[in-house]
Amino acid sequence: MNIVITDDYQDCVRHLSCFKKLKDHQVEIHNDTVSGVEALVARFQDAQAIVLIRERTIINRELLNCLPKLKLISQTGKIASHIDLDACKEKGIVVMDGSGSGTATAELNILLILAALRKFVEEVNRLKLGQWQGHLGDQLAGKILGVYGFGRIGKQVCALGKAFGAKSLVWGRQSSLEKASQDGFAIAQSKEAFFRQSDIVCLQLRLNAETRGIVTAADLALMKPSSILINASRAELIESGALEFGLKQGRPAYAAVDTYESEPVLAANHPLLNLPNCLCTPHIGFVERDNYEAYFGIAFDNINAYIAGSPQNCVN
User: Fold this and answer.
1) Neighbours of 1 (CB within 10 A)
2) H or E, element range at 108
3) Residue 29: CB partners within 8 Å, gap ≥ 6?
4) How far lies 201's CA from each of 10, 114, 181, 234, 250, in Å?
5) Could you name the CATH architecture of 2-101+288-307?
6) 19, 298 in Cβ contact below 8 A?
């Protein structure tokens, strides 16, 4: 089968142990992202199968109309709104997904929290510039760690925060609050109370129509003047422009973000990169070796199962 893997930014997929699962196929790997139907058609025109790395490439009806050879799409991780599932179904294109543990993303959240609290990057840069200590940092122990969303990753962040001595405070859907309470974590009385009480707000929501823009400028204005916001989930969870505005107003006092509305961010072309109170990382939450072995291992197994006549993990 002719397989195309796109958006492999680090050119790492071919070096994974699980890549051997595709040894009997013709595989074409691209290390960049292209947009626009014309460019995507040129990339996928001979593909019988496409392996997508999360939501880096949008597969819509207009594109699918130009890909008559395409038989299946194997998604690393869970399917989101970047694939038109109805159009795939109409055209007989099978879409399959898989899942990872979420551990790598949960760990990155804690890394961003600690780096923000201790002004870690700033201190490293000061030393490289020939300077010595410049900030008085804070510890995580004793802080109120607000976790918005209590899914797989949110639950892990709460547990990791507890190990550091933080007091987790959860907000989200009623079902999330019930699960958090059952696991022994405190729940906020309201969304307003959540933002007012948290020393650190960590967003752990999936992006969908209900959660897009769910964090507003008014929410951020409620945060403490010493507060930190962490977003390693999706940039669109925050109302457009609200975080930049809030950081300039000092609420939150600091932010660490790993996701952006349009990716990849190149040539330092994003307003948050110019703010001294924002730590920006290039969407590396899930980009970790064990996680990739799991994600791609399932994606490649899905392809081989389809060829063997026993499709698995189908979503359409």
Assistant:
1) 16
2) helix 103-118
3) 4, 5, 6, 8, 11, 13, 14
4) 30, 13, 18, 14, 15
5) 3-Layer(aba) Sandwich (3.40)
6) no
CATH of region 103-280, choose from 3.40.50.720, 3.20.20.70, 1.20.140.10, 3.90.1300.10: 3.40.50.720
Quote the tokens at residue 6. 């796109």
Residue 234 annotated to the active site: yes
Whether 263 is catalytic is: yes
CB atoms within 10 A of CB 306: 20
Retrieve residue 167's tokens.
């007091």
Report pLDDT for 266: 94
pLDDT at 102: 86
Question: Residues for the chain: how many in total?
Answer: 316
Catalytic residue among 234, 239, 244, 270: 234
Give 10-residue mean pLDDT values along the chain (316 residues).
97 98 98 95 97 95 98 92 95 92 94 98 97 97 98 97 98 97 98 98 95 98 98 97 98 98 94 97 96 96 97 94
Question: Of residues 107, 123, 263, 293, which has the active-site annotation?
Answer: 263
Q: Where are the domains of the chain?
A: 2-101+288-307, 103-280
- Give CA torsion, residues 287, 290, 294, 295, to 10 deg: 10
> CA-CA distance, 172 to 68, in Å (whole number)?
42
pTM confidence score: 0.93
